[in-house]
Design brief:
The complex is a heterodimer.
Chain A (H helix, E strand, L loop, with lengths): L1 E3 L5 E3 L6 E2 L12 E6 L6 E6 L6 E5 L1 H4 L9 H4 L10 E8 L8 E2 L5 E4 L4 E4 L11 E2 L12
Antiparallel strand pairs in A: 1-2, 3-4, 4-5, 5-6, 6-7, 7-8, 7-9, 8-11, 9-10
Chain B lengths: L10 E4 L3 E9 L2 E7 L9 H15 L4 H4 L9
Antiparallel strand pairs in B: 1-2, 2-3
Classes of the chains: A mainly beta, B alpha+beta.
Amino acid sequence: MKIKTKYLDEVEIDKEKIIRFEKGLPGFEDSKEFALLEIEDLIGFKFLQDINNEYLCFTLVNPFKFLDSYEFNIPDEKLKRLDLNLNDDLLVYNIVTLANSLEESTVNLLAPIIINLSNMKGEQFILNNDEYKTKHKLFLKGDKDACTK
Amino acid sequence: MLVLNRKIGESIVIDSDTEITILDIKDGRVKIGIEAPRDKTILRKEVYEEVERENKDSVDSSNPLDILGIKINKNI
């Protein structure tokens, strides 16, 4: 199906690839259907586009590409909300708040987005963790080249 | 909002699976104990609001294509 997007005009997506956020996201509780979009041939970043609202689009980053370590614990009972089974594939992404440059941009490590690829369910979990904040610097100077071809 | 008065040691029950107990009151701070199903998300309100705010800020932030240095190849 075709969807209108905020940054990529009209995009063709596979209906089976629509990700269902049963609870929406904090601040956007009514937005429940999203598509994960590639950004040209950029590695490590994706768009999370609301398929029903072209103006709602989050920029996501794969934290494991840019951080030395990112570890957290989510209780099993909470992961059950994504119907998670032992062999399911999970994606972890964090929302980026872009500033005037990549060096000034920040990433929300306190609230990762977890997507269960086996059933296309997603949720933004808020961690019970003092170490991570909503605004972490995304890059040290010079590292941004790691993501572009 | 439902408003109830509780003394230290007294509780409130929500449905049959959640109980909120006032454990202590001192210097204007209330210590609250919460027993709820473990799949429930329980947060200090300001933490939830901070994530809400950050989500909203991120949607309104700079154009990612500009900041990431991306030129979109448009197929005509």
